[in-house]
Each structure stands twice: as structure tokens, then as C-alpha cells.
Design a protein that fits this description.
By secondary structure, the protein is mainly beta. The chain is about 10% helix and about 50% strand. It is globular, with a radius of gyration of 20 Å.
Length: about 300
């Protein structure tokens, strides 16, 4: 699990033997179990009330855009969206600007693909404080999602994401490892009348060396780990709020025995939605508390997410 930017001065450790075979077998068994026990249902199996414009299905289909891209996305095949995540840093420290961008495409009613890249404008302390720009990362992913129970409106997804550092970024921007992240997620309405939806996720973070150097961030595990998250979100009249507990442990899948836990509260406020229906500009306010190998951390954040979707 990766939280925040790597911090300067914490060099990447030497290679150590990691239990990747066991972790991969665990991921494949989880995916097989989900596929075996989940009945095959189409999007039309959702209750009519859930599919109405004011129902829960449109809200649940926005959760990957807002909270966690692992969550089920039940839009029909051919649906797509492009996203941009600008991050303005501290110009006095030379952390000027980062941009995460990419897109999602529903190839069928149940399968979607995603790809993205990350760019930077940064002052590099390792090159005489010279201001540099370019790409520092890329990611690919595939996800299979389908409804589970028409009576409850629940849905499940199984997928895998891959990310890798690229180019010649400053050491403070990357950890220097490639990450393969298989996962299983589940979402269901908890209180439909109040538009409260619960969600949970279980996955793996499998590390492999890349040719690029890097540094790990504070409270980021340095080896293979099991990841999880559980939370709930509510759609209010003018905004969406969520509370998520996430964690990771390297106890069973590596020779390290470390854990990290984060409690994250977020509020999503739509901007310009009525003027530009297919453009979703979202203001995000967040507060988090983390407890891990490097101690406890508390922080707050604010950002803007920009999405262009094939349908409003």
C-alpha cells in the first residue's frame, strides 16, 4: 500500500527474498472463489428503483470516480471517462506541480480497462536544485464487475492493477518499485432511504525491482503486503461524504512483520455540474490519521478532480 509521496533521505533497501508465489496463489484463489459463488446477473437485474436517475445505481457508479477505483462500475459497455488529478505542492520547497491523468473504458457490460500516466514539474535537489519536468509513472488495469443480489443492490468486482516508475524523476517522487495489485471488492446499499452505501476491499501489493532508484514515504511498507479497506459513503443533497478505514500488513507474504492503518474522512463537492453536464469538476476535502512503523501522522488535504464522461 502506498500512502503519500516518498520522503527524501530514506533510501530503497537492498533486495530481499519475498514470498511472491504464495501471494499470487492467494490472489488467484480469491478471484476463483468469487467467480464460483457469485451468480451471473446483468445490469438489468438491478431493482427498477435503483436504476432510476435519483436511485442508488447512478450514485454507486460514481464511487470508483470519487472514492476508490477498485469499486464495481456497472455502467453499460462502451461507457468511458477521462480524468485529471492536479496536485499543487509547496513552491517554496520546489514541489511545484504533479498531474495524474488517464482514462477508463467499459469494453463489455462487465469488463473495464484503465490506463494512466503521472507527470511533474519539480525542483530536483539531486541536480543542483534544477527545475525539471516529465513523466514519473504509468499504470494499467483490468476489472471485472457484476451485480450479486438484485434484492439488495449489491455488486462485486475482481481486478488487477500494475504501476511502474518511468523516465528519470526526482528520487522524492517514486519508491523505485513496480507494483502489481490484485483485489476483490464488494459494495452494497446499507440504508437505501438515506443513500448510504457500504464497501470493502481485500487485495495484495506485490513489489518487484525497477531499474530506477527511489525512496519510500513515511509509513509505507517496504515489501509485499496484504491490503484491505472498509467504509461507508452517503450522498447528501449538495455533496458526498465518506469514511474509510484502510490497512496493510506484510506479516504473511514477506519476511517483514509490519502493519499500517489509516482512517480517512473525505467530502466531495461537485462544481460546474449543471453548466457542463459531461464535465465533472469535484472539490475534495479530506482529513486522515495514520498509524504505522514510522509512528502516528495526522493531516488534511484539499484538491480538485476533473472528469469527462461519455454520459452525464
Amino acid at each position: 500500500m502506498r500512502t503519500g509521496l516518498p520522503s527524501p533521505g530514506r533510501a530503497r533497501p537492498a533486495a530481499r527474498p519475498l514470498a511472491r508465489g504464495a501471494a499470487l496463489r492467494t490472489a488467484l484463489l480469491c478471484a476463483a472463489a468469487v467467480a464460483a459463488v457469485s451468480p451471473v446477473r446483468g445490469q438489468s437485474d438491478q431493482p427498477a428503483s435503483a436504476q432510476e436517475p435519483g436511485g442508488l445505481l447512478p450514485f454507486m457508479n460514481r464511487l470508483p470516480e470519487l472514492i476508490d477505483q477498485h469499486l464495481p462500475f456497472l455502467a453499460p459497455g462502451g461507457t468511458y471517462w477521462f480524468y485529471g488529478r492536479p496536485h499543487v505542492g509547496d513552491p517554496f520547497k520546489g514541489n511545484y506541480f504533479r498531474l495524474d491523468g488517464g482514462g477508463w473504458l467499459k469494453v463489455t457490460d462487465t469488463v473495464d480497462l484503465n490506463a494512466g500516466a503521472q507527470g511533474f514539474i519539480w525542483r530536483d535537489a539531486n541536480e543542483g536544485d534544477r527545475t525539471r519536468y516529465g513523466l514519473y509513472g504509468m499504470n494499467l488495469g483490468i476489472k471485472y464487475a457484476r451485480p450479486v443480489s438484485p434484492s439488495t443492490g449489491s455488486a462485486i468486482s475482481v481486478g488487477v492493477n500494475y504501476s511502474s516508475p518511468v523516465g528519470r524523476p526526482p528520487l522524492s517522487l517514486v519508491d523505485g518499485w513496480r507494483h502489481t495489485d490484485p483485489y476483490v471488492t464488494y459494495a452494497r446499499p446499507l440504508v437505501p432511504s438515506l443513500k448510504i452505501v457500504g464497501y470493502s476491499s481485500l487485495g495484495l501489493d506485490l513489489l518487484a525491482h525497477s531499474p530506477l532508484p527511489g525512496t519510500f514515504g513515511v509509513n509505507v511498507l517496504h515489501s509485499n503486503s496484504i491490503t484491505f479497506s472498509v467504509g461507508a459513503t452517503r450522498q447528501w443533497k449538495s455533496f458526498v461524504s465518506s469514511l474509510t478505514l484502510s490497512g496493510a500488513t506484510s506479516e504473511l507474504v514477506s519476511n517483514e512483520g509490519r502493519q499500517v492503518f489509516t482512517l480517512n474522512q473525505q467530502v466531495f463537492v461537485p462544481l460546474l455540474r449543471h453548466r457542463l453536464p459531461r464535465w465533472h469538476m469535484i472539490g475534495v476535502l479530506g482529513a486522515r490519521a495514520t498509524d504505522g512503523p514510522d509512528g502516528r501522522q495526522f493531516g488534511a488535504s484539499g484538491s480538485v478532480n476533473i472528469n469527462f464522461k461519455s454520459t452525464p
